[in-house]
């Protein structure tokens, strides 16, 4: 039996298109699955811990810085003033060695003032030496006893030349300082005038023994430091009796150490012009 008519052809592109669509769908599904797996589930938000703020300690005020005190300069000699007359020395006592003996003998104050002076007197034996005459008696008493029996308003001390060959400046000043303190104990109301040790002539100073102007100057510098310009004063007559070499004027002395009688008034006038009222 014969069949007559046209044979149906298969479409070669149809199956290819279906395959492409199928592959595309599979790819989209794979991508979606990958993205879904890669994104982790969101964690619940955690609360931040509370922070306690501690207030800062208040700043303490800075302590004031104390400035170091400026060291005071040693007191200088008593300033020159209008001269006093001899009556100023009515209630004064002069204590010293042979130089003060010269003031007693040639200064004109022997009837006005009191003198406890002796040749060879030293600071070391000043209070123990029996050099004070007792009126109406032949015996003599010590300076310590005399100062204990009578009070004075002024004390003039000139001592130190005889000690030049003994000890050092330090040992001398230790004894000198203690003597001044003891004078204050015995005479609490008195003004004390510490007189610089008189220098010797430049020739005498250069003889090579223990008496030198350098040694005298070293002691005078320390004596000046004891003055307080209240109860203790420092007096230095050396500028008036020394020449350009720094030593005592040669014509003012008979032995290079002691003033001649006619030059004692230079010393006395100096005391009158440097008195504390």
Q: Can you walk through the features of this model?
A:
- With 277 residues, the chain is an alpha/beta fold.
- 32% of the residues lie in helices and 11% in strands.
- The chain contains eight helices and seven strands; from the N terminus they run H-E-H-E-E-E-H-E-H-E-H-H-E-H-H.
- A five-stranded parallel β-sheet has the order 2-1-5-6-7, with helices on both faces. A two-stranded antiparallel ribbon has the order 3-4.
- The longest helix is centred in the N-terminal third of the chain and has 25 residues, at 14-38.
- The termini are far apart.
Which tags fit this structure?
alpha/beta; disordered N terminus; 277 residues; two-stranded antiparallel ribbon
Briefly, what is this?
With 277 residues, this protein is of the alpha/beta class.
- How can the largest sheet be summarized? 5 strands, parallel
**Strand runs, count:** 7
Unreliable residue runs: 1-13, 17-22, 28-41
- Oligomeric status: single chain
The largest beta-sheet arranges its strands as 2-1-5-6-7
Q: Averaged pLDDT, please?
A: 83
Binned, the helix content reads 25-40%
Structural class: alpha/beta
Order of helices and strands: HEHEEEHEHEHHEHH
- Spatial extent as radius of gyration: 55 Å
What form results from the Cα inertia axes? globular
Q: Roughly how many Å apart are the termini?
A: 179 Å
Detail the topology: elements first, then pairings.
Elements (H helix, E strand, L loop, with lengths): L13 H25 L53 E5 L1 H9 L7 E4 L12 E4 L6 E3 H7 L4 E5 L10 H18 L4 E5 L6 H4 L7 H12 L7 E4 L2 H4 L22 H9 L5
Parallel strand pairs: 1-2, 1-5, 5-6, 6-7
Antiparallel strand pairs: 3-4
